[in-house]
Amino acid sequence: MNDTNPQQEQEQKEKVEEQEQQKQKSASDWWKSTRKTLDQASSTAVRYKQMVQKKIDLAATRKKIDQAHAELGRKVDQARENAAGNPLDQEDVRQVLNKLDNLKQSAIQLEEEIKALKEEKASATDSGSEQ
């Protein structure tokens, strides 16, 4: 009986150690899963923030485009009233047209960035649901 007692004690000790290892592994897996979820939520929030900021910038750019259109209309009307010839030949009109071109290019760039963020969000959502 003395031989079985130490053997049983050893088996019991190994069983307890195995259970402890399983508990630690389970806790570790839980922390990894939690961290992964938090990282995904954080990156989603960052993308959302970027998208909202781009949309705000786009709305401001569109407002500036509308203002430039109004300014262009005033300049053309003034040139017509002053019988200054072709309004497109006047420097102030060309400046407004250049400003409009730049604003439109900025708006296109912002729209592309928003689209890219939406596609990135969609791909992140797809890859997140697969895992």
From TrEMBL:
Keywords from the UniProt entry: Coiled coil
Here the segments flagged for biased composition (Basic and acidic residues) are: 10-23
Coiled-coil ranges per the record? 62-127
Q: Does the keyword Coiled coil apply?
A: yes
> What are the start and end residues of every segment in region (Disordered)?
1-35
Record flagged with keyword Coiled coil: yes
Query: What is this protein identified as?
Result: Uncharacterized protein
Q: Which organism is it from?
A: Geoalkalibacter subterraneus
